[in-house]
């Protein structure tokens, strides 16, 4: 498995990915999944990959080779638009998959890519390239794209990432998102790579490789854990807690905060809300409902 | 889909679940997934359900009916141990599935249950009951169980829930976990139900049904969003940010925090870390790696 994320904010792009590559739990290796291809000062591309490693390596090898070959008409050096770059990589991916499955159609050699970067004269952009070769870009409402094991790390991105967020804050948010994922899925693992591409810089300004024992990563993990714990502890108290902490004479007149349920101030059972359960032995079972 | 969670801490148990029930996106209903069955002062059971609604309703209908029938030898009224209660519900679930698939084995009528509660003389316990009828309990290292769409809401539970956490803090953490899930998966939806069962109370002390516009839930959501945003903004700065904010004369002697990568203080490209990419056109493709 893999987890990679790309974020597009007003100030530029952030890329992050893990490095764990596995063919089963008994065959685990470390591979870079964040690749930079560039024509300095003119165009920069960052490719993140999730899926079959052979397909990914085919795409990268051909993209790099053709970029350096002046006789190739269409390459990452010649495309005019980011969309065309995504389309080009998509076609390479389709070709790699087709070639690999010629003798056996039942092997899954799919790969999903994220392409991000900037070509002079265009805005920075990020695209997700599907195994079919087609692609989608991020949008102002959805300023990030994820590939691989995306669920564990999505809530913090959903809550924090907006177009106006600072590049470095977006990078820290990506690191937290990766950290949450590594904690829950061991097929996503360290070290993690981060790259920052500021708008119009046409060069990666900062790239980091962070392991659990890298001092910055360790301090980030530690700070995040402490702050999250404090955040839960500082959430609004339930009203029975507020009342318990006041002297009897100071207890406020009850205000309903409990929705449809009745409030009880003495802490005793109030499960009557469930007596009217929606199930009943006589009701018609709805087989499809889950 | 569904998302339910049960948490076991030293002080007792917390249960929470959503209420959205769907057979496709065009047929959405609201069903209670948190059910309380009790013999007041002697034993309390809470059942959370995820999966086929007909199977769930079969289990609940039979469990309730047999609990109230003095002629039934084995029921939630008669079992001596929480494990036996879980085993009993597991057998009901298996029977329901068998009956439903007699004429058509290809329909999936599986359901996964969480059973929590306490029987006088025993510790409180929570069990996950699989569609096969077998079960596992929570442990001190893993003090919570989840069913349904579990990934989005897991990181906050992983980071916060420990046995020594206060019951109310655990309940707030469950609410945040549910909120993150509802944000990312529309098949998990409000209102949400929460029930708190303090150790040795042998009765639910508080039960809440909270919708997005319930004042407590609205304030919790709002507080969580703000605190999480602050938490990201307060994470340790990258060293180039620290240096930028100091006058030149006060800049510290660099300390390596960047792991294997070289640090650069001028903000210029440092992507040489990726020049030694692990891919190469000549390398042997490892088909199985992803």
Question: What's the quick description here?
Answer:
2 copies of one chain form a homodimer. The first copy, chain A, is α+β, with helices and mostly antiparallel strands and 290 residues long.
Question: What features would you describe in this structure?
Answer:
Two copies of one chain form a homodimer. Mean pLDDT of chain A is 87; it is low at 251-287. The first copy, chain A, has a single domain (3-233), classed as Aminohydrolase, N-terminal nucleophile (Ntn) domain (Glutamine Phosphoribosylpyrophosphate, subunit 1, domain 1, 4-Layer Sandwich), CATH 3.60.20. Helix content of chain A is 29%, strand content 23%. Chain A has helices at 53-67, 82-100, 154-160, 167-184, 215-233, 239-244, and strands at 3-9, 12-17, 20-22, 28-30, 34-39, 43-51, 111-119, 125-129, 135-137, 144-148, 192-198, 206-210. Chain A has 290 residues and is of the alpha+beta class. The first copy, chain A, is built from six helices and twelve strands. Chains A and B meet through strand 5, helix 1, helix 3, helix 4 and strand 12 of A and strand 5, helix 1, helix 3, helix 4 and strand 12 of B.
Give the low-confidence spans of chain A.
Answer: 251-287
CATH fold-level name of chain A: Glutamine Phosphoribosylpyrophosphate, subunit 1, domain 1
Shape of chain A: globular
Radius of gyration of chain A: 25 Å
Q: How would you name the oligomeric state of the polypeptide chains in this document? A: homodimer
